[in-house]
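User: Sequence recovery, please. Input:
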């Protein structure tokens, strides 16, 4: 990707963000899915940013992609979550593990928005430990038959394609490209959420669902490895989104603190308000630094996918970036709400929305607790010190 290509992509992202904001403002107040998100993303050609041009993408390196996602998340965690679900973890495993026929069939459709993608790993009884999944599959001639339920799936109610993980008779996990809207597929939107009302979250059930053998993603039994490699991408997307939360909270808090007057002066001149501003700024600087370091590590791994050391480094840095950014984003939003005072306790203002929405970032794509265990075991020396061994 040339410097000119990077600038052009980030300009397109900025144009998208300018256009989406008024729709997102209205949809948030009305608590409904932002149905202008996909048309505007298609208009500005940002639905497949990290994929090569031969598949309809923009060829963005990871550093550029996370910058784009950070800018998008300034418009809302729900907006960015759509892109994460569609691109970072939805279509990405097809680019990562798919054969050439699968890539050419599905990735251009993702780029144009003809097909919306999602990632089906989490289940009602399998969250932090996906190996406890209860969705099963068995071979039946030229098909695989899948049965089970997936839960809390971003884009799950609007997706045309969901990369879905199921456990086979041997106990090993495989990955499948599941087309929705077919016999044996049912879904239900989940709207009882603390935040992200403009994003789609759903559960779906597969009942004797027949997947063509050609839709097996990667080798049979390689699903867990595919899922874990995909989560490197997903965690960086969440971290980038949290940086966007911090950036927007800083903009909003600074502007409000200068305009709001109490005790005869702008509250920006009050020392305790300045403490909050300084803390948000430090969250921004530190989050950006760890995120860009992790993104560069992922690019290095992508350039040498068989290098186990580079893979481990990218995996660890993605976990570190996600853990740090999610905590920083939560604290930044909380501080921005405090600066707004009573107005902060209203979703008519942006800090309150960010506070509601960013909380989930400490849960999805790896909870704080799981990431801490992952990081600690790496520091201690690896598998020997994994908490669940």
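Assistant: Recovered sequence (389 residues):
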């Amino acid at each position: 990707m040339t410097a000119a290509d990077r600038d052009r992509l980030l300009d397109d992202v900025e144009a998208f963000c300018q256009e989406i904001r008024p729709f997102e403002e209205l949809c948030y107040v009305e608590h409904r899915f932002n149905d202008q998100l996909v048309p505007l993303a298609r208009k500005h050609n940002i639905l497949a940013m990290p994929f090569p041009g031969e598949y309809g993408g923009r060829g963005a390196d990871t550093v550029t992609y996370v910058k784009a996602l950070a800018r998008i998340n300034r418009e809302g965690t729900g907006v960015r979550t759509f892109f994460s679900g569609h691109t970072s973890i939805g279509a990405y495993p097809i680019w990562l593990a798919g054969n050439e026929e699968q890539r050419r069939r599905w990735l251009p459709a993702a780029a144009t928005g003809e097909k919306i993608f999602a990632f089906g790993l989490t289940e009602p009884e399998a969250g932090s430990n996906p190996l406890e999944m209860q969705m099963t599959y068995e071979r039946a001639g030229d098909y695989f038959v899948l049965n089970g339920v997936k839960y809390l799936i971003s884009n799950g109610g609007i997706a045309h394609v969901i990369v879905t993980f199921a456990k086979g008779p041997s106990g090993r996990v495989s990955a499948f490209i599941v087309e929705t809207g077919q016999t044996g597929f049912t879904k239900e939107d989940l709207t009882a959420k603390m935040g992200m009302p403009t994003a789609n979250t759903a559960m779906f059930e597969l009942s004797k669902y027949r997947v063509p053998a050609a839709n097996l993603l990667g080798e049979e039994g390689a699903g867990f490895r595919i899922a874990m490699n995909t989560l490197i991408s997903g965690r960086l997307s969440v971290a980038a989104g949290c940086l966007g939360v911090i950036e927007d909270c800083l903009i909003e808090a600074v502007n409000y603190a200068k305009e709001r007057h109490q005790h005869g002066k702008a509250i920006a001149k009050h020392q305790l308000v300045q403490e909050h501003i300084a803390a948000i700024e430090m969250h921004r600087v530190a989050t950006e630094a760890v995120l860009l370091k992790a993104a560069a590590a992922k690019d290095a791994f992508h350039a040498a996918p068989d290098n186990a050391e580079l893979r481990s480094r990218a995996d660890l840095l993605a976990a570190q970036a996600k853990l740090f950014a999610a905590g920083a984003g939560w604290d930044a939003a909380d501080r921005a709400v405090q600066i707004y005072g009573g107005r902060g306790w209203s979703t008519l203002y942006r800090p309150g929305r960010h506070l509601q929405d960013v909380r989930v970032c400490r849960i999805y794509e790896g909870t704080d607790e799981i990431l801490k265990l992952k990081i600690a075991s790496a520091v201690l020396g690896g598998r020997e010190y994994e908490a669940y061994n």
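The radius of gyration is 21 Å.
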